[in-house]
Structure formats: C-alpha cells, structure tokens
C-alpha cells in the first residue's frame, strides 16, 4: 500500500505546531497503524530527519497510551478498539490519512502526537480509591454482590483512561472517564463508606483541571475503545446531587 500522511508536528509545548506531509510506501496490509508509523519513521531517520513522536506501550489494546486522532476520530472510525488495534487493511491504497494528537485544554501537547494526560491521574488521586486495611484476599463469596451491580462495576472498571472520550467531545468533557471511576467503586460494598466524599472530590478536581461540561451528545461512548456506557454519567450526576444535599445538612 502507498499512502500519504498528514501529521501534526510540534517540537515542544510552546511551539506553534504544523502539519507535515510524509509518504508511506510499501506498507503491508497486515501491519497495524503503529507499525505503519514505525516503517515511516525508519525512512525519516534514514534520510536524516526527526522521527514522528508518538506514545505507545502494550500495543495490545490494554493501556490506551497509543491515543491518536485518525482522520478526525479518536482511535479511528472502528468501534471498540484502540489505535494500536487499527490495521492498514481498513484503508485503501492511495488514501490520505490525517494524524493528530488528542485535543483538549487539559491535555497539553508535549511533542508531536504525545499529550500530557496527567490530569486524569490527579482526578484519580482526588478520590478514586477506598481506604481499607489491606492483607490477604478475602474469599470471593464473603461479600455477596447482586449480579446487576457486579456487571455495572465491571463495565466501569474496563475504562483504561486513554482520553478518547475527552478528545471526541466538543466541550472536552471528562464526564465519562470520571463517572466510570466513580461508578466502579460506587457499585461495590467496599466503596460505600466514602461514596459521597469520592464523587465530590473527583468532580471538583475534574473542574479544576479545565475539562468542559457534558451536553449529552454521547460522542464519548461512541469513541470509547472499551465502549463504556453513558449510563454511568447519569449515575454519577445522581450521586453528586445527593452528596451536595447531604453536605448541606451535615
């Protein structure tokens, strides 16, 4: 396959940035999107140029580090996959592919296609945990959990924090990410003692990071590689409202 790449290049967070054009020649159809970038980078390095900088780790759809916007869509147009799971057979010979970083005020560009998503880490640090004594694992059946709650907790826990929900939202809202982290623990018995404290702290930190508001258009669910349900947003909103009321009457 022979392709044309339009790639966002930015030397540093303070650099203005630009779109550069690169030929991607003799790309195997079975190659993944990141392998295609590896092939292009080899040619750039051979010619004495600066390779395209992009983030990656597992390349198995687990970590979400490979977050790229492909032709305007976070992780590409296929549903339920990360960038590293996109294969070149999904494109046609001669295609032009636009590759950009995730765009959000809270995700500043570090270099080229790499963004700083540490805002998510600070949201988790604000309340995405439970305070319990740790030790050996308890018996699996010692804390009975209704199946609906267990299923919802698993759905929320599948979030890998890649940021596609933020990049797909016109307001750069992080509501799907935050609600998944809140809902995950909120469905489990261990998460109940700090339920109000958790949602208040995490939403406060989300706002402090500069993420926008949710307008319920659900681009986040469509772009999420783990297909996290927007039902978690509704649940978080209910928990937040209850926590605000409880706080006023303490």
- Provide the helix percentage: 25-40%
Please state the oligomeric state of the protein chains shown: single chain
Using the alpha-carbon principal axes, give the shape: elongated
Structural class: alpha+beta
CATH class of the largest domain: Mainly Alpha
Termini separation comes to: 65 Å
CATH topology of the largest domain: Fumarate Reductase Iron-sulfur Protein, Chain B, domain 2
Total of domains = 2
Please tally the helical runs, counting DSSP H or I stretches of 4 or more residues: 8
Which CATH architecture of the largest domain is right? Orthogonal Bundle
Radius of gyration: 20 Å
What is the CATH superfamily label of the largest domain?
Alpha-helical ferredoxin
Please provide the ordered H/E string of secondary-structure elements.
EEHEEEEEHHHHHHH
The side-by-side strand order for the widest beta sheet comes to 2-1-5-3-4
* Sheet of most strands: 5 strands, mixed
Number of strands: 7
* Model regions low in confidence, pLDDT < 50 over at least 5 residues: none
Describe this structure in words.
Helices cover 36% and strands 11% of the residues. The protein has 250 residues and is an alpha+beta fold. The protein folds into two domains: 3-110, Roll (Ubiquitin-like (UB roll)), CATH 3.10.20; 118-248, Alpha-helical ferredoxin (Fumarate Reductase Iron-sulfur Protein, Chain B, domain 2), CATH 1.10.1060.10. A five-stranded mixed sheet has the order 2-1-5-3-4. The mean pLDDT is 94.
